[in-house]
């Protein structure tokens, strides 16, 4: 609740000189970026959460099998999320993940220099401490929500505490991916890159609280990764990173390539593929060729594991997945459907978007 909503004399805008009011759009733009960032982080967590559930189901069904990915401890299959930074972004992200994924409080931890300022989360039994190294050693997904000036010292502190499979999701927009890779000495890094549309004044949800905005179907539709109409464009290379990160999760559990492909396909709702049958033959599900070069696939034995993907390279170079995403409308629709379905919304059949290939890059 905004306590100042009806008190015009105390509104932020009342303190702005007339000649400076033209810059007020930046406030809405900042809030719009926060909404999109939290929405995409929530989608990614939902995706990993659902993948973890599938892995647990495979473990239960193959408890007597010799296939190694089924032998991982139950606890290791759970999604455990750490947030480094307890400022405005870190707190907003924590609220969103707790309510909308939802992540149980015992599976979320926050590391900040002022844990005493996170009383609302401690009351929910979220562990709030100042121990970055311990947090990254515990979590399998870590969000960096710190200031760019703080990042070098944090990276020095945590770079030897990562497990290989731990995914680092960076909100530190001022630090490019190659720099992050060097600072962290880690390759399993995901970073969303945004570009604000020039001259775009209306950002959907700019006047709503983050949680409320992400429960509004119209605003959620505007956050769709392939939708450029919301005033903020997300580089489609982020989608590359998301799906290759999911494959890395499967590889970390020693799933061979066909098992991994089956698990990723099971993340898509059945309705996604039924829709393709309305006006023609069913479209194919994800194939190895969507992720690997055909020449590489030809030399792979059926039971071999997938290669470990360097997510920093995935997000900086063309990949089979990004090539297919740009050239196959059916694949675009499947990804859009998956995103919307994860939030419980659906798009009109004719309304599918894809950010142009010249979206912002490094």
Automatic annotation (TrEMBL):
UniProt record, GO biological process: L-proline biosynthetic process
Domain of life assignment: Eukaryota
Domain Pyrroline-5-carboxylate reductase catalytic N-terminal: 80-167
Signal peptide boundaries: none
Keywords of the record: Oxidoreductase
Oxidoreductase in keyword set: yes
Molecular functions per Gene Ontology: pyrroline-5-carboxylate reductase activity
InterPro entries, per the entry: NAD(P)-bd_dom_sf, P5C_Rdtase_cat_N
Record keyword Oxidoreductase present: yes
Family: Belongs to the pyrroline-5-carboxylate reductase family.
Biological function: Probable oxidoreductase.
Protein name: NADP-dependent oxidoreductase domain-containing protein 1
Lineage: Eukaryota, Metazoa, Chordata, Craniata, Vertebrata
Gene it is expressed from: NOXRED1
